[in-house]
């Protein structure tokens, strides 16, 4: 990296302060109360006239106003709670509507508050709880005040696409048409997205052609970008390039998001020539300039492939173009330097972030903890882990995996036990990958009894072993000279694969 590769600070605070100082209590400005009047006070009405009032009258008016506001708030809360309870009851009894009609009356479920039903629907859509969202939507359609609205259907179709439910999305699309809602390019794009997200590209292309043949529903850059991204995710690079050419034919200009999608996909696939070609094409378009996401995708591509010098040159070029980094940029630099074992440059980036108060995220901590752990620098790794917890950033499964791997390589069995104690006293969600790291660590240290106990831990947590779990155990037994145990594990794997049993989950 050059002598001063990092950009000038952006919105930095006092550089004399340190990032990881103890959290200070926030200070608030003090407001001085006006001096009380001895006899009377005045206020101004909306028409600008000055009206004299006595202090006693003023206090009475304020008290009445506060009481009125409190009563209104309480009434609103009670109404909302009542409607929420009604929604909950109706949803629980959705399968037996006859019971609802008999016990709650035939019309009560059709008189819920509009705001409450819409909020309930919005919350479920946001949380991608598609089954519950569809039930609330059915409830919404039963309301006396309901009017068909295409925007609501589009939101639901987009949600179903994200949840990989394209057939249900298509059913909603048909219901939208039957209810008389106008079909637009937004609704077509939502349906196309639902199919493309599920990998049903033929169906998505069919919808695209249908849009192109409809004068009022022509595809736009957003439509093409969605389909291009889906093609690239399944490595259908030729189809993606065809779509890009089709855009030009249709007179639709690609935007920054379109180009960034190509750059990111080509970079991850290590297709550097194609990535650079797209970047050159992007730079030649006066109306489409690179942004920080362009920079991050490019840096990630070269950095993760070990081309550190090229990454640094690209960083300088983007900096000269006026593109400022964000926290993701620094995370990419840290990760690339860590994997390349360039710890001096990694430390320089950390110092820069600290100096100019870039707040570290869970990703930042995971990167540096893993890097120092792989380097065997347990002291620095543990120091960073303590800093992470002092910043009240909750460790993730990735964090714990890095700790376990490092302790396993160093032969620190007692340290691994401390990690397990931390897990027992927390609600951190663990997965099979973590337990596989645990199996590998115990196996490296030839702690075979502890390694075997991991299977019991997994069962208690409802986590199934996979191929890696058993193969790691077999390798550990074999390396430890326990050939019989290794053979038993290997036979278990072979038998399970032959019979395609679900346990163990292979």
Description:
With 506 residues, this protein is mainly alpha-helical. It has a domain at 437-506. Helix content is 66%, strand content 2%. It has helices spanning 55-92, 97-104, 114-126, 130-142, 150-162, 166-178, 185-197, 201-212, 221-233, 237-249, 256-268, 272-284, 292-304, 308-320, 327-339, 343-355, 362-374, 378-390, 397-410, 413-424, 432-444, 448-460, 467-479, 483-499; strands at residues 41-44, 50-53. The chain has a two-stranded antiparallel sheet with strand order 1-2. A hairpin with a 5-residue loop joins strand 1 and strand 2 (50-53).
Q: Helices and strands, in N-to-C order?
A: EEHHHHHHHHHHHHHHHHHHHHHHHH
Distinct helical segment count: 24
Helix content: 55-70%
Calculate the mean pLDDT score and round it.
Answer: 82
How is the largest sheet built, in terms of strand order?
A: 1-2
Q: Based on CA inertia axes, which overall geometry fits?
A: globular
Largest sheet: 2 strands, antiparallel
Radius of gyration: 31 Å
What structural class do you assign from the helix and strand content? mainly alpha
Q: What's the end-to-end separation, in Å?
A: 45 Å
- Given as residue ranges, the uncertain stretches (5+ residues, pLDDT < 50) are 1-5, 7-57, 93-106
Strand content: under 5%
- Regarding quaternary structure, what we see is single chain
Care to count the β-strands? 2
């Amino acid at each position: 990296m050059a002598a001063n590769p990092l950009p000038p600070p952006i919105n930095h605070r006092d550089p004399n302060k340190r990032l990881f100082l103890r959290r200070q209590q926030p200070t608030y400005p003090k407001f001085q109360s006006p001096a009380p009047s001895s006899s009377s006070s005045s206020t101004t009405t909306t028409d600008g006239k000055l009206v004299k009032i006595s202090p006693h009258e003023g206090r009475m008016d304020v008290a009445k106003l506060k009481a009125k506001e409190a009563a209104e708030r309480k009434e609103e809360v009670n109404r909302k709670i009542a409607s929420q309870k009604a929604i909950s009851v109706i949803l629980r009894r959705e399968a037996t509507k006859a019971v609802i009609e008999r016990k709650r009356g035939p019309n009560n479920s059709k008189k819920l508050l509009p705001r409450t039903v819409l909020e309930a629907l919005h919350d479920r859509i946001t949380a991608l709880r598609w089954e519950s969202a569809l039930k609330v939507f059915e409830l919404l359609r039963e309301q006396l005040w309901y009017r068909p609205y295409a925007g609501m259907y589009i939101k639901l179709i987009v949600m179903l696409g994200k949840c990989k439910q394209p057939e249900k999305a298509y059913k909603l699309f048909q219901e939208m048409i039957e209810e008389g809602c106008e079909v637009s390019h937004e609704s077509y794009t939502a349906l196309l997205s639902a199919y493309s997200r599920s990998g049903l590209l033929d169906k998505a292309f069919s919808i695209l052609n249908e849009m192109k043949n409809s004068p009022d529903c022509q595809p736009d850059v957003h439509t093409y970008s969605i389909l291009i991204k889906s093609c690239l995710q399944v490595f259908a690079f030729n189809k993606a390039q065809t779509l890009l050419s089709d855009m030009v034919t249709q007179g639709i200009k690609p935007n920054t998001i379109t180009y960034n999608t190509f750059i990111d996909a080509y970079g991850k696939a290590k297709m550097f020539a194609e990535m650079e070609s797209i970047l050159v094409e992007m730079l030649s378009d006066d109306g489409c300039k690179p942004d920080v996401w362009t920079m991050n995708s490019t840096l990630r591509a070269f950095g993760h492939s070990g081309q550190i010098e090229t990454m640094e040159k690209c960083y300088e070029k983007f900096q000269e173009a006026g593109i400022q980094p964000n926290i993701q940029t620094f995370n990419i630099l840290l990760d690339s330097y860590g994997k390349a074992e360039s710890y001096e440059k990694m430390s320089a980036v950390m110092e820069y972030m600290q100096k100019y108060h870039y707040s570290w995220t869970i990703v930042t901590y995971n990167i540096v903890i893993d890097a120092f752990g792989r380097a065997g620098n347990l002291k620095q790794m543990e120091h960073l882990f303590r800093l992470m917890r002092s910043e009240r950033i909750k460790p993730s499964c990735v964090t714990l995996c890095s700790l376990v791997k490092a302790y396993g390589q160093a032969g620190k069995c007692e340290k691994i036990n401390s990690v397990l104690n931390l897990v027992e006293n927390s609600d951190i969600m663990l997965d099979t990958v973590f337990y596989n790291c645990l199996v590998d660590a115990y196996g490296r240290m030839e702690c075979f009894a502890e390694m075997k106990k991991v299977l019991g831990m997994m069962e208690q947590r409802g986590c199934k072993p996979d191929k890696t779990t058993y193969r790691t155990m077999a390798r550990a037994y074999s390396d430890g000279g326990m050939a019989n145990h290794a053979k038993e594990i290997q036979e278990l794997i072979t038998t399970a694969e032959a019979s395609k049993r679900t346990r163990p989950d292979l």
